[in-house]
């Protein structure tokens, strides 16, 4: 068993199995807070076809299990004994999750927990705000655009949540529902706009005034990376950076007219995210507009950080 570093607690590991990507964090709690030692992000598209079929496909499961096997090697190599694994939108919505979770448990030694939208929102809020160093009394709205759902959480930067909701709208779900042509057609865009507008009317979380808006997860971090030509991706250049509504809209205008094969080569954009980024970018812009925000802070953190924070304090 590895010996914890002086002044540091035991290493903990958390995995967030999302609709589009699987995220791993290995971190320790020190006197200065939670410190990452290793992070990994892999796009496996577990939620492929879930919006239409309501079941996990065999191919998507195999891609995701292969990713989990690689993560398990990291956990064993670093002798990580305390691990928590959660699944979100795709695993909430789809049949076939029991078999997938059983196989994942064999690989990881711990079975993934399927968390509800409210818990996902709470963990997103806690994790997304970590390391941003906002004044504790600041009012904050955090939004997390995932592949299958988008969470909105309002509260104080100290961690107290006053409102939270999870809406069934995300980059993968929108793409599968609305996009039929490449580049996106006028009809595709009309379907995207209509679906987004209809869903966002159900969001009771509002910002405005002095409320700080924070965007979390891959769609938002990708837009910032494209806007600032960050390639290869570096979390330290992204976490805590600002992205304006104007910049997000400008990136969307570029993406919507660029064919997929060309999008795959854009600096700052992972080729595996290129097919769903147009829908995600439009959703991000419309979210900011609906919140009355002209800019946001971008967070490279989220559920896995919220999990690690709680796991390290148990």
Structure report:
The protein starts with 11 loop residues before the first strand and ends with a helix. By secondary structure, the chain is of the alpha/beta class. The chain is 43% helix and 22% strand. The longest helix has 20 residues, at 58-77. It is built from 13 helices and eleven strands. It folds into two domains: 12-117, ATPase, nucleotide binding domain (Nucleotidyltransferase, domain 5), CATH 3.30.420; 128-299, Exopolyphosphatase. Domain 2 (Nucleotidyltransferase, domain 5, 2-Layer Sandwich). Residues 1-7 have low confidence and may be disordered. It has helices at 50-53, 58-77, 89-93, 97-108, 117-129, 171-178, 186-200, 218-227, 235-238, 245-257, 260-263, 277-291, 303-313; strands at residues 12-17, 21-30, 33-43, 82-87, 113-114, 139-145, 150-156, 161-167, 212-216, 242-244, 295-299. It has a six-stranded mixed sheet with strand order 8-7-6-9-11-10, sandwiched between helices. The protein has a five-stranded mixed sheet with strand order 3-2-1-4-5, sandwiched between helices.
Helix amount: 40-55%
The arrangement of helices and strands along the chain is EEEHHEHHEHEEEHHEHHEHHHEH
Major sheet details: 6 strands, mixed
Report the uncertain regions. 1-7
Rg from alpha-carbon coordinates: 19 Å
Structural class: alpha/beta
Spatial gap, N to C terminus: 20 Å
Q: Largest beta sheet: what is the strand line-up? A: 8-7-6-9-11-10
| Top-tier CATH class of the largest domain | Alpha Beta
CATH names the topology of the largest domain as: Nucleotidyltransferase, domain 5
Q: Which range does the strand content fall in?
A: 15-25%
What would CATH call the homologous superfamily of the largest domain? Exopolyphosphatase. Domain 2
Average pLDDT rating: 91
Q: What is the count of helical runs?
A: 13
From the spread of the alpha carbons, the general shape counts as globular
- List the domain count as a whole number: 2
- Strand tally: 11
CATH architecture type of the largest domain? 2-Layer Sandwich
């Amino acid at each position: 068993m590895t010996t914890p570093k002086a002044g540091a607690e035991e290493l903990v590991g958390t995995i967030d199995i999302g609709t589009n990507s699987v995220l791993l964090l290995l971190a320790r709690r020190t006197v200065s807070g939670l410190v990452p030692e290793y992070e990994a992000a892999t796009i496996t598209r577990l939620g492929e076809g879930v919006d239409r079929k309501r079941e996990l496909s065999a191919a998507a499961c195999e891609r995701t299990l292969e990713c989990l096997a690689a993560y398990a090697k990291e956990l064993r190599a670093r002798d990580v004994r305390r691990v928590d694994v959660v699944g979100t939108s795709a695993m909430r919505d789809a049949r076939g999750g029991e078999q997938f979770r059983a196989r994942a448990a064999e690989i990881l030694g711990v079975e993934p927990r399927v968390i509800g939208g409210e818990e996902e929102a709470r963990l997103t809020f806690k994790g997304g705000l970590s390391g941003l160093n906002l004044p504790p009394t600041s009012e904050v709205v955090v939004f997390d655009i995932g592949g299958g759902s988008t969470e909105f959480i309002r509260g104080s930067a100290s961690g107290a949540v006053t409102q939270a909701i999870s809406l069934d709208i995300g980059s993968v779900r929108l793409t599968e529902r609305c996009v039929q042509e490449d580049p996106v057609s006028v009809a595709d865009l009309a379907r995207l706009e209509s679906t987004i507008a209809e869903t966002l009317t159900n969001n009771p979380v509002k910002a405005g005034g002095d409320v700080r808006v924070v965007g979390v997860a891959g769609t938002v971090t990708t837009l910032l990376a494209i806007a600032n030509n960050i390639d290869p991706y570096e979390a330290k250049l992204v976490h805590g950076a600002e992205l304006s509504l104007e910049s997000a809209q400008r990136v969307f205008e570029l993406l919507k007219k660029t064919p997929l094969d060309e999008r795959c080569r854009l600096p700052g954009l992972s080729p595996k995210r290129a097919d769903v980024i147009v829908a995600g970018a439009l959703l991000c812009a419309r979210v900011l507009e609906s919140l009355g925000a002209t800019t946001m802070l971008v967070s490279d953190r989220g559920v896995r950080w919220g999990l690690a924070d709680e796991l390290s304090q148990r």
